[in-house]
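During the second year of the project, the team shifted from modelling isolated chains to modelling whole assemblies. The rationale, set out in the original proposal, was that interfaces cannot be judged from single-chain predictions alone. As a representative example for this report, we include one of the complexes processed in the last quarter. Its constituent sequences, exactly as entered into the pipeline, are reproduced here:
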Amino acid sequence: MSNVVSLKKERFIRGAAVTGIILICALIILKIENMLVSFVLAFAISNLLSPFANYLERAGLPRSLCVSSMFFFIAVLLGAGTFIMLPGIAGQLASLKHELPRYIEGTTKILAMLENNLNSFVGSFYQVDISKTVEQALFSFSKQIFSNLPRIFSSSLTVMILAPFFAFFLLLNGRHIVKQLLEMVPNNLFELALNLQHQISVQIGGFIRARLLEAGIVGLVVWIGLIIISFPYALLLAVFAALTNLLPYLGPVIGAVPAVLIALVNGMGVFEIACLVSVYAAAQLVDNIFVIPLVVARIVNLHAVTALIVIIIGAQAGGILGMIISIPVASIIKLTSIAVYQQFIDFRI
Amino acid sequence: MINSLWENILKPREKDTSSILKENILFQDLSSKELKFVTNIVHLRKYRESEVIFHHGEAGVGMYIIAEGSVNITIEDSHAESDADHNEIIITKLGEGDFFGEISLIEEDGRRSATATALEKTTLIGFFKPDLFEILERNPRAGIKISLRLCEVLSRRLKETTEKASLLEKQIKQLQKETDK
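Output from the structure prediction step:
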């Protein structure tokens, strides 16, 4: 009997220890500044690079050499890329800073025109008054974004150092860390925990790779398209389109808004605007016809209403970055919940 | 002497697990380098006396090799009329070096066909489906060697079961003939 009691006690202690470690790690990630973003990025990077590390390892190279050489190669590639692209990006940013008041003024004028048209239709029922509010919001946003640029840059620098550092160790020792944690799981839950961890890591890995591939392809198509039609800020707009493409449903539309506004403010003709819309439409066509069917099985789509609620929560919690990572995080939670539920049924717990 | 002492202090677990794995049919074709790779992937689990390793009907994801101790494989007596009559039929008792649960390595959504219980303080080496996938992904040569041996073990089990089934069929027919007479 005492043996049975002590076995129960041992199981409880082991279970509590594992849960405690996971909770402490979660708390550190959530509470320490820049840690959440760094960790999410590191997780994404390690999942993206994991197939390449495995490929090199299959060739007979030791894991440490595979990971180190891969990071060295990426560092060289990024260094060269930055060296080539930085003058262009800096030029585009400086030009944008200079031109921003003009774009805001132009946007406000377009909104005022829209407001007048709307009021002439529904003026007797309701007076639409958004142009002044939007103008004020845009001006304060544009002032803040450039005055906060040093702080954003220092915070980004921390993330840019921490994320690859974490990613390196996740790729090198990630499996070992998970194994160590699994060793502490009580015997009666061990197979469940091992299988659950495997299912979640396979699904999340596929999901992250699919999403990043999708965003990368959309960004690339937009960039090439904008260069072909000689549109200003091609690289910045392509990066924006790639990032917003991570947001389902509204993302592709939001991604195209700045380009359309730039075209309208600059007074571009119908043909040029049609070309611009075609570029964004082509990116979405490539995404929907080629990319999504190939990787769709790995993407967990959230319901439109759920996605909207999740984006609002993300925006409240972490601003623009919160909005971008809210959908992947929500999808991971959804995946995990489904897997946990399925596992608990299978293991009769 | 001193060297072996240091070896035992520094890497006792790995050495033991490697030598146990090397003696097992599934891993006997592996080179020492491949064996070291597999040793870092498998899981060492310790069980108390009478502790259940898995229950009959539970989802199973892999097999166990007995490193130390012994294990009873039992099934519930389906002929028991009430809970009071509830009894377990011992199928086999397994000792060091034996392995069990290997069907779960390849079965999709497999369920355990019997209950396994540690008879004494027992150490098991767990080798599970995610481990096999990892080996196949990172070291396909070792993964294929293990998979081929696994096929051999399973085909041998199938052959034995078929022989037992045909023997039982013969015995049933003989019994029927005797009853008819």
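The helical segments of chain B are 2-10, 12-23, 32-39, 129-138, 140-180. Chain B touches chain A at residues 40, 43-45, 47-55, 57-62, 109, 126, 128-130, 133-134, 137-140 (CB under 8 Å).
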